[in-house]
Amino acid sequence: MRAWKKTVIALLALAGGVAIVLPVAAQQAGTQFMGVLGYRVGPYGANGAAFFTGFLDYLALVNEREGGINGVKISWEECETEYNNAKGVECYERLKTRNETGPTAIHPMSTGITYGLIDKAPADKIPLITLGYGRTDATDGRVFPWVFPILSNYWDAATGIVKFIGDREGGGDKLKGKKIVLLYHDSAYGKEPHPVLEAEAAKLGFELKLIPVPHPGNEQQSQWLQIRQYKPDWVILWGWGVMSATALSTAQKVGFPRDKMVGNWWAGSEIDTEAAGPASEGYYAASLNLAGKDFGVVKDVEKFVYAKGKGGDPKLVGTVLWNRGLAAAMYTVEAVRTAQGKFGKKPMTGEQTRWGIENLNVDQKRLDQLGFATMVPPLKLSCLDHGGSGLVRFQKWEGGKWKPASDWMSGDKVMVRKMVEESAAKYATEKGITAGCMKG
Amino acid sequence: MSFFFEVLIGGLLAGVMYSLVALGFVLIYKASGVFNFAQGAMVFFAALTFVGLQEKFGLPFWGAFVLALAAMVVLGILTERIVLRPLVNQPQITLFMATIGLAFFIEGLAQLIWGTNVRRLDLGIKDEPIPFLLERFDMALSGFDLIAAVVAGVLVTVLAVFFQVTRVGRALRAVADDHQAALAVGIPLKQIWAIVWSVAGFVALIAGLMWGARNGVQFALTFVALKALPVLIIGGFESVTGAIVGGLIIGASEKLAEIYGVPFLEWLVRMLFNISLTLGGIELWFAYVMALLFLLIRPEGLFGEKRIDRV
């Protein structure tokens, strides 16, 4: 190809790129810009699409219903990570300099991407909100001032599941001598509950067997044959994406009862159970939020967003992950609102938003005002506690629907807190961090 | 002992599911000497089109099947026209690279048309242990797997007859041997390629339906191609029979390795280094280690043709 042809093509490509970026930049000026690390394609695309559609639908609701956060319109840009760590970091780098205030707060929606950003966030002064995932010991805000594993962390989930199983067996003391398998996604996410489950096994006297499933987990014959041979009393499913549906269908294939399986909150959406069909009947899963449309906020989204043709996907409305996305956006918006209370009604920077998150207090009264009622538990954060509630609720898949199987409950909060502080202190020593609360 | 046989037979049946995917690779390779990187994407596209048609237009099974098959034929013809025809007589690596691009295009196209939602696919076949085997021999073997084995058997028979007996089949083999020589004797290369890509589309549809019925139709279907690779290396890239035998070998050996090999490895690590490790999940790479060993011993695979080139 001649040099001039190459030059013309390169210039055209450059012009195209500029044409795409310019309107975005224009739209962002003077708004509360949110950088969104989403994923809607790839092996985990269905899960990501449900969560991020809910997330963006809520932001659209705040703009449509209230004209933004205290009058400050929200703008956003979504970058596709494909649940890939390298792409996640690349998206973060791309979004961190957008707009004069940066991306406000980042929801990596992946434990692996969270790990990749933990060292970058303090340097860039961008808070990470990891709702129900990520690094568990980041709950200790004295060591991780920029990371917020809000609502509940993986250790809350694991101890909550053990408590739930104990309740089914007639009390925690009845777990002595029982066999429990942890069937987990062989990744940072899947390995996160190991220490706390091992501690629970030692404390309560049950036998724990760890069985990894390689990514993406669409073939689990060997793992389930091991389970059949081991004959456990319960199986805890720590899956994501196709792994969860495959676990349910393979459990059926080897004849393991589904009502002796408890998933964590990332293995408990309609995406998992509907794909596995009748194999899901009777399966339990932990949840951070309730599914369904019977909430004021969902009705508002339908009225102010979908009725105006501005919604993402009506089929996702009211599903577990869509509602979770809604809640994640609500906590972020409330954090910005909290920050505005101190710094003024204008777009907040990452640093100001960090203060807002750390001082966030969404009590039941506020939840009722926002139309969330019982969908999520109240949340109050502090420097010492970047997690908040530590609560989990269980649901059961029956007749093609998730039905509540417990009230909000917590696992072993004392043990979790002790382990969080030990692990965070170890991290602080390794990284040379002086633990302490940030001012301002 | 019954557990050992359960692992073995279960592994063999799982291997048949891998073979279903491997057959598509074999078809393209036989006709063009190209390793079609897009086969996994074709499996995904076929299954997604099938359930998408059922969901969107309420079509019955056969209606959706025929239309999905038609879509695969159109895809095959377009692939020949747009991707392969301009690359006739180009080096094999060029064609291979083209199929990589094709894979990403098909994955994107499928999600663009039908969305990324996971969809249930019900073929009406129960994926549960057969009660007789469970009660009599304490073996949990699924009826679904047995039906998959029958489907694979029928496919292999049909394809074997197609390649050996029909004019088109013989032409396909001639094209695979030498594009230029086939053209010289009047074989219509373009038509042959369109036919073989369409047949590969049919095989992809069958594989997509079987895999999709088990785990739901979702993007992860594209990864089943990873399971087919070691099968092809062991069975041979141009052998339909090899795809089946390779599948059986991989299926059985990876399951036996996972169940019996992992405890041994964990014990060995404990003895040698005094470390307690949870290994597990070795089956994915074990299949590739097996394939590597076969490459060292018999590079053309068990049923592959030994190529002798004049120099």
Name the descriptors.
heterodimer, A: 440 residues, alpha/beta, Rossmann fold, 2 domains, 7-stranded mixed sheet, two-stranded parallel sheet, 16 helices, B: 311 residues, mainly alpha, 12 helices, 0% strand, globular
Describe it:
The complex is a heterodimer of chains A (440) and B (311). Chain A contains 16 helices and 13 strands. Chain A has 440 residues and is an alpha/beta fold. Chain A folds into two domains: 31-152 and 292-391 and 420-431, Rossmann fold; 154-287, 3-Layer(aba) Sandwich (Rossmann fold). In chain A, the strands form four sheets. A seven-stranded mixed beta sheet of chain A has the order 6-5-7-8-9-12-13, sandwiched between helices. The termini of chain A are far apart. The model of chain A is unreliable at 17-26 (pLDDT under 50). By secondary structure, chain B is mainly α. Chain B has one domain (2-225). Chain B has twelve helices and no strands.
Write the layout of secondary structure elements.
The complex is a heterodimer of chains A (440) and B (311).
Chain A: H1 3-28, E1 32-38, H2 45-66, E2 74-80, H3 85-95, H4 111-117, H5 120-124, E3 128-129, E4 147-148, H6 154-169, E5 179-185, H7 188-191, H8 194-204, E6 207-213, H9 221-230, E7 234-238, H10 242-254, E8 261-263, H11 270-276, E9 284-287, H12 296-306, H13 320-343, H14 350-358, E10 361-362, H15 364-370, E11 379-380, E12 393-398, E13 401-404, H16 413-431
Parallel strand pairs in A: 1-2, 3-4, 5-6, 5-7, 7-8, 8-9
Antiparallel strand pairs in A: 9-12, 10-11, 12-13
Helix pairs in contact in A: 2-12, 2-13, 3-4, 9-10, 10-11, 13-14
Chain B: H1 2-32, H2 39-57, H3 61-84, H4 92-114, H5 131-137, H6 143-165, H7 167-177, H8 179-184, H9 189-215, H10 224-235, H11 240-273, H12 283-297
